[in-house]
Specification:
By secondary structure, this protein is α/β, with parallel strands linked by helices. Helices cover 35% and strands 17% of the residues. The strands form five sheets. An eight-stranded mixed sheet has the order 13-22-21-14-15-20-16-19, with helices on both faces. A five-stranded mixed sheet has the order 3-2-1-4-5.
Length: 592
């Protein structure tokens, strides 16, 4: 065969397409792989405008199929779901029997965001639902995987490592809460696992509820921790759990928990409240005790993460570590693990929550089950919809005055430096919980009052929650002390310590504990955003800007209309849609 014949054969070859999706618990999402690399990814909440939505990801799947070239579901080789329904049902039945009679409370309708009977009905009809929702014949193969394997796939199979230890830590959908595994090439071997009801995610959720938040608001507890003293840390480590560093055996002390009777509706037991005091009413002010509880569980979490890392190093012998699962969204723990030196290199999956299981499930099937070589190495998360060609028309439809510039970066940088709040929208939407310069609100990090201004005029959130910075990748070391071996600084999945000499220069992004959660912005992967920061650096000598998600107590905006709606209902000064700039002062008729 000639070289030309080989090229022709390759062009005629039908690519292998795998669609992963998550649904019916929380953080529904969809991901499409083409020959093992990511073509598209989106979370359903961006389309539905309902945070953490558990609903079937109709629009996310439709977007992925469209981005794949106008595919129908029958064009996909396999559809992968992020746990095995029958395993979940069996695990649930065992759990109910083991914890009778209290476990009968689990069947109350308000126990979960999706009623139990409705959820099971959907799971058992999954292929029929896929066919009906997308007008498909059903030619695709439906694959279900153990939940922990989809986290393992997300952790390892798009990492830069050929050999790595893998840690997953999760509340658990179908039974397995925590694992230690080793990945080699396209194979993953699980070495140690922990099962419900025993998992660190449940312990952290317990304290999240104790201080008055929903169980999925753990990030608020991280923010609170910097304002407290860890005076309950010894109580947590002596009373609430046990980890054997030799065998790896892990157990929660269920005398202090009630989730096995009430689900996530109420996690704590009466004994816990008797020993440390009542839970905060969500409507009540936050007390110093609440801050101390947050500091205590945060310190305990960091210590537990380090113990798991040491255990993984001993059990696998690998010099590399990959992490995923809901607990890995704890950015302070991630910094401690990466900086500890236990491993030479650490990859933190930025899609660590269950939303990332659509990616992890698709990768696990393609690489580990189908046996294909790995083709995905994470370099960015810009996998969502792009609307640049529609921005001008939407601005006109909304009656906004705007200017179009060939190179808007210098003017945007000048606006930020003058104190303006900028809504920045352009390119493909980023995946995951963090705005990474495609759907962002930008501001000046040098102003000590900018945090209050952002909260008052746009974000309307708790004072203790920090704002993150986006920094030129090549200048990251000028502002932050290095996080040794961390391979994931582009994604705001780890904190870093702000250099002492820089803290007074960037007070908006420096938290009470001296850390920040930076994004290292690459010129290669998001040049327009990089240019805005570079222009700001030329003006001010500071190589970063404040970057918070483009929203106001809602999911991050997806479409130009979402961005305009947020611009109108808040006090953003400048709206940037692609290369179009709309100033509030020129559009006061649209102001609230």
């Amino acid at each position: 065969m000639t070289a030309e014949d080989a090229e022709d054969a390759e062009e005629r070859r039908v690519p292998i397409r795998v669609l992963g999706f998550t649904a019916w618990f929380h953080d529904s999402s969809a991901c499409l792989l083409t020959d093992g690399d990511v073509t598209a990814f989106a979370e359903e909440e961006r389309f539905s405008r309902r945070k953490h939505t558990p609903e079937y990801p109709q629009r996310a799947i439709e977007y992925c199929l469209a981005e794949g070239g106008g595919l129908s579901l029958d064009d996909v080789d396999a559809v992968v779901f992020y746990f095995r329904p029958r395993r979940l049902i069996l695990q649930s039945l065992r759990h109910v029997v083991r914890h009778l009679p209290g476990s009968l409370n689990l069947f109350r309708r308000n126990t979960t965001v999706v009623p139990v009977r409705e959820r099971y009905r959907n799971l058992l009809r999954m292929k029929s639902i896929l066919r009906e929702r997308h007008g498909a014949r059903g030619d695709f193969k439906l694959v279900t995987l153990p939940h922990y394997q989809t986290h393992q796939g997300a952790a390892f199979l798009c990492s830069p490592f050929e050999d790595s230890a893998i840690i997953t830590m999760d509340v658990a959908v179908d039974g397995t809460t925590q694992t230690i595994a080793r990945g080699r090439g396209n194979r993953i071997e699980t070495i140690l696992s922990h099962s419900l009801p025993h998992g660190w995610g449940m312990l952290y959720s317990l304290f999240t509820q104790l201080v008055g938040f929903q169980y999925y608001d753990e990030y608020k507890v991280m923010g609170m921790a910097a304002y407290g003293e860890p005076r309950f840390a010894d109580f947590i480590e002596e009373r609430l759990y046990r980890l054997d560093d030799g065998t790896g055996r892990f157990e929660l002390n269920l005398d202090y928990f009630a989730f096995h009777h009430h689900g996530m509706r109420r996690i704590w037991s009466d004994r816990l409240l008797a020993e440390i005091g009542p839970a905060r009413d969500p409507a009540a002010p936050i007390s110093q005790r609440d801050y101390d509880l947050a500091a205590s569980v945060q310190l305990a979490t960091e210590r537990f993460g380090l113990r798991m890392a040491r255990l993984a190093r001993r059990l696998t012998g690998s010099e590399n570590l990959c992490l995923a699962g809901g607990v890995i969204q704890n950015v302070l723990m991630n910094q401690r693990i990466a900086a500890s030196g236990i491993f030479e290199r650490v990859f933190l999956q930025p899609l660590a929550s269950d939303a990332g299981c659509s990616l992890g499930g698709a990768l696990f099937y393609y690489n580990c089950i189908f046996g294909k070589p790995r083709a995905c190495v994470l370099r960015h998360l810009y996998w969502g919809p792009e609307y640049n060609g529609e921005c001008e028309e939407v601005l006109r439809q909304n009656g906004l005055k705007y200017r179009r510039l060939e190179n808007p970066a210098p003017e945007i940088a000048r606006a930020i430096a003058s104190g303006a709040i900028v809504g920045y929208f352009g390119g493909r939407m980023e995946a995951g919980p963090r705005a990474l310069g495609a759907r962002s609100i930008l501001a000046d990090p040098r102003r000590a009052d900018m945090k209050d201004i952002l909260n008052r005029r746009v974000k309307h959130r708790e004072h203790f929650r920090p704002f993150a910075p986006s920094c030129l990748e090549e200048r990251l070391g000028d502002v932050f002390e290095p996080v040794r071996g961390c391979e994931s600084m582009r994604y705001m999945i780890s904190t870093a310590t702000v250099r002492p000499e820089m803290r007074s220069r960037v007070p908006t992004i420096t938290h009470n504990d001296g850390t920040a959660r930076p994004q290292a912005v690459s010129r290669e992967t998001n040049r327009p955003f990089w240019e805005v920061i570079h222009e700001f650096y030329k003006l001010t000598g500071v190589p970063l800007v404040v970057n918070t998600s483009f929203n106001d107590n809602e999911p991050i905006v997806c479409t130009p209309q979402h961005a305009i709606d947020c611009f109108k209902k808040t006090r953003i000064d400048l709206l940037v849609l692609g290369d179009c700039l709309a100033y509030r002062e020129e559009n006061e008729a649209g102001a609230p």
